Amino acid sequence: MHLSPEQTTANNIAILGAGAIGQLIFHQLADQGVAAKLLVRRSENTEKKLTITTLDGQTSIRTAQMICVDKLVQPLSDINLLIVCTKAYQVVDAVSALLPKLADDCHILLLHNGLGPHIALSSQLKHHGLTLGTTSQGALKNTPWHVTQTGAGISQLGPFQGPVLAPDLQALLRGTLPNSQWCDPILPMLWEKLAVNIAINPLSAIHHCRNGQLAEPQYKSTIDALLKEVVTVAQADGIALDKSALSDRVFNVIALTQTNYSSMHQDVHHQRKTEIDAITGYLLTRAESHGITAATNQALYEQLKQLEQKYLDA
Ligand code: KPL
Known about the structure:
Bound molecules: ketopantoate
Structural class: alpha/beta
CATH superfamily of the largest domain: NAD(P)-binding Rossmann-like Domain
Distance between the termini: 45 Å
Strand order of the largest sheet: 8-9-3-4-2-1-5-6-7-10-11
Number of strands: 11
Radius of gyration: 19 Å
CATH class of the largest domain: Alpha Beta
C-alpha cells in the first residue's frame, strides 16, 4: 500500500531520532492523519520513503520530511510537540542544541530508555512543558528506512515539568500509541520500567544470552539482589515500589520476550555504545546521592563498562 504525504493536521509534530521506535511512531502518527517531521543528523533536508511492516504483516510506504539538525538555519517555530526517541546518551546534547530553534510553547516528550536526562534538561527548560514516557513497543530495523513491528507493548506518559501537554495532543498520543496510559505521577512507572531494564539488560549482555535464559535458577539470586537495591534506592528517592510485584513483572517480561536479545545485548554484540549509564548508572547516581551502597548493581555496571570499553577503545 502506498499512502500519500498530505496527512497534515494543525498538530505540527517532530520526532527527534529515526531509530526503530522513532520510525514506528512516525507511521503510527500517520495512521492518525499526522505527518510528523523527522529530525536527524547526517541527512539532507529532503523527503524520504519510509516503509513499515506491522504486526498483521501489512506493509505500507510513506513519505517523510527529513530535517537535518546539523544544517538547521530557520527556527522550528511551527513545531508544537517534539518527541525525543534518540538513545538515552544522546538526549541532553541533542535537545539542548535544538532549544534555541524551538518556540517557547513547543512541548517536549522524552521517550528514551532509562532515566537521567530529564534532570539535566529540567534546569534548561524555562518555558517548555516536559512530559516523560516509556514504551515497550517492539520494532526492528530491517534496513535503515524499513522497520518491522515486533511486539504490541504498552506506553505510559505523564507530566514532569512546566505546562502540561495540551488535552488535544494528549488525546492524539493516546490514540497513536497502542495500549497507552496517561499517568500522573509518571516517575513510579518509569522506575518500574527502569527496574526491568536493570534486571535484564546488563546480565543478558554480560552472559551473551537471550532474555529467556535469565529465568534459569543460576540467575535468580542476582536478579533478586538487583531488585532489592532498586527498591531501596527508589524508596530514598520518594518512590515506593513493591519488590514482589517488581519481581513478577521482571519474570513476566523475561517469559514474554524469551527469544529476544535485549537492546543492551544487541549494542554489545554490534560493538555500539550501550545505555548502561541511563539504566544501572542512573540507579548508582541516585544511590550515591543518598549515601546508599548498591553492590550488586555496582559490580554489573563495572563488568559491562569494561566489556564496552574494550571495543570502544579499539
Ligand atoms: O526493554 C528491553 C530492552 O531490551 O531494552 C527489554 C524489556 C529488556 C526487552 O528486551
